[in-house]
Amino acid sequence: MAEQAEQAEGVIELGRVRQMWHLLEPLHAVVYYAPEVFAEAEKLGYGTDIRWPSYFAWRPAPLGPVGAEVVSAAFYSFSPRMVAEYVPAGWATAGPAQVLAARLRGMDGVYRALFGERVGGPEITEAAALARRAAEAADTAGRPLAAANAALPWPDAPHLVLWQAATVLREHRGDGHLAALLTAGLDPVEALVSFAGIGAASAETFRSRGWSDEEWAAGRERLVVRGMLDADGVATEAGRALRAEVERATDELAAAPWRALGAEGTARLAELLGPLWVEVLGSGLLPSETTLGIGKV
Fold it and tell me: What span, in angstroms and rounded, lies between the C-alpha atoms of 17 and 257?
């Protein structure tokens, strides 16, 4: 029914906007977990025993050799102490230009391993063209990570165009999500505590962002005082309503690229992405629980 409404009214339902995030996010996120990308990180000189040394290279590289303060602001939910462990020290290992080249080489290997001969096939070629149209329609004003990725040159290979478009679109959504959190009055710790409070993921998963027990407890207490959590850290009705509004605002702020692509183009892209999404999730590369709350919100 939602698809029929889109076609009839010439609009994009917010449910479709969220669906596109669900389909594209795994296609982007394998960059942080796949062995082919870790191999590229190791060649550059980054440690690969844990994912954070390369994560804090791959993701901020489009911004240039920025310091910890800029990365902390752009990433929002990470403890500044955790960011400072890796930024700017990581730029002494490899500069952003080297990192960006290695990032693409790694993703070339990942997609070839996942999709085989389909990387040059008509379905991925069509999906890449549609995703690029959506990404190029994304308004990047006030969205630093989206803008930085959108400013990169487009690769030639369709499968890498698809990955880059997915990256622009997920960072566009992510930048908008931060605006929604700020509007809701949720600081970086409170954003995680409130998300844990509605069961989006375990508190342990959210604490991977580097906040101390004391900082976590203080953030929870602030939300208890606001009536958003009960004494056990579980979201109250008001807390659930606030998080629902954050997610609704995030969907609305992420809708423009899909409105530009149009209902028919967006529906076709969703159809093309479905089998790729299944392949990525079935690969076992991605963790079963993340801080994004996909499938929980």
Answer: 9
